[in-house]
Amino acid sequence: MHGIRTVLVATGLAIVARGAWAQGTPWRQHDPARPRPASVAPGATLGSAPADAVVLFDGSSLGAWRATRDGGPARWVMRDGFMEAAPGTGAIQTADSLGDMQLHIEWAAPTPTAGRGQGRGNSGVIIMGKYEVQILDSYDNTTYADGQAAALYGQYPPLVNASRAPGEWQSYDIIFRGPRWTANGALARPTAVTVFHNGVLVQDHASLWGGTDWLRPAPYVAHPTRLPLVLQDHSNPVKFRNIWARPLPEQSATPTRPGEAVNAKALTAAQLDAFVGSYRADNGEICRVVRTSRGLGLSIFARKDTMPLVTTADGQFTFRHTGGSVRFVGGGATALQLEVAIAEVERRYVRVR
Ligand code: MG
To answer: How close is the Cα of 131 to the center of ligand 1, in Å?
Structure first.
């Protein structure tokens, strides 16, 4: 009875483990074949553009920007390494279209302060011309919550108010994932926005229910995956500097490779039994090869748990969940030896019993 219960419990655990694997870990652990991430040289200082960023404004030119109103030159004011919204000239937008991205932007509210509520230091980072991260002087200025600085306007107040005083430079670091559509134009995935305001998390993967608008909802209508980035003219001389974006690749939703190794070659019980035993390395470490309900297991590096092995060829195994290899060599007149390669360790063991 005890034995049956043990088998049932072990089987249940194995099913749970395999389920989690299929959803979250398409590669075996430490798999040496897994592609390495590309290198990106970070900016020289915190907040400066990494090597793979598209620089939209570096303080020297408005060349990357156009007037939203007529597509002509942006008519905002350039001075001393920043640009300033020129009230009445209208919004400006990037000449290039942008989609999913990491966006860095720095801004400062006007001094001396003037106006109140939505009338004080109002501008906005309107991604794709549709999704506004509000800019407002919210340092000592009360307004409705979904309209203060770092709100996703009309939808999500910021988690906290991380505003600096007017005149001081502030930063938004935004991770933007635009909507996706089905073939017939229905919404397949809503816009999701994460924002850090002066390094403080204020929007945590907030899911928008449409565009941002004033006094009314703006339901989703299918649009391109890239559109210009807009900065709002709300009649307040807000300053901007150091604007850059890193286009983001599509998020991978499906595993590219099974999480478990495949048992390529079934061995008989007698063949498996022939490998069972204790093996010693030159450094004195002992590892053990044991029989399990599914085949062989290896207990290694002084760990008490047993790592399941699967057969890849005669005398050769890999780990079920982890990248690496186990190879049995010799035997017969000489002691059976075991070569293990896993997680940057390559070690040879000789059977001692
Ligand atoms: Mg605004």
So the answer is: 11
Residue spans of the domains in the chain: they are 6-29+258-351, 54-247
Tens of pLDDT, residues 224-236: 999 999 999 999 9
Please tell me the distance between residue 158's alpha carbon and the centre of ligand 1 in angstroms. Answer: 14
Determine the distance separating the centroid of ligand 1 and the alpha carbon of 51, expressed in angstroms. Answer: 30
pLDDT at 47 over 80: yes
Q: How many CB atoms lie within 10 A of CB 16?
A: 10
Distance of alpha carbon 231 from alpha carbon 249, whole angstroms:
24
Query: Kind and range of the H or E element at 270?
Result: helix 269-273
Question: If you measure from the C-alpha of residue 194 to the centroid of ligand 1, how many angstroms do you get, rounded to a whole number?
Answer: 18
What pLDDT digit, counting tens, does each position of 69-120 carry?
A: 999 999 999 999 999 999 999 999 999 999 999 999 999 999 999 999 999 9
State the DSSP H helix or E strand holding residue 244, giving kind and residue range, or none if neither.
strand 239-247
pTM: 0.83
CATH of 54-247, one of 2.60.120.560, 3.40.50.300, 3.30.310.50, 1.10.60.10: 2.60.120.560
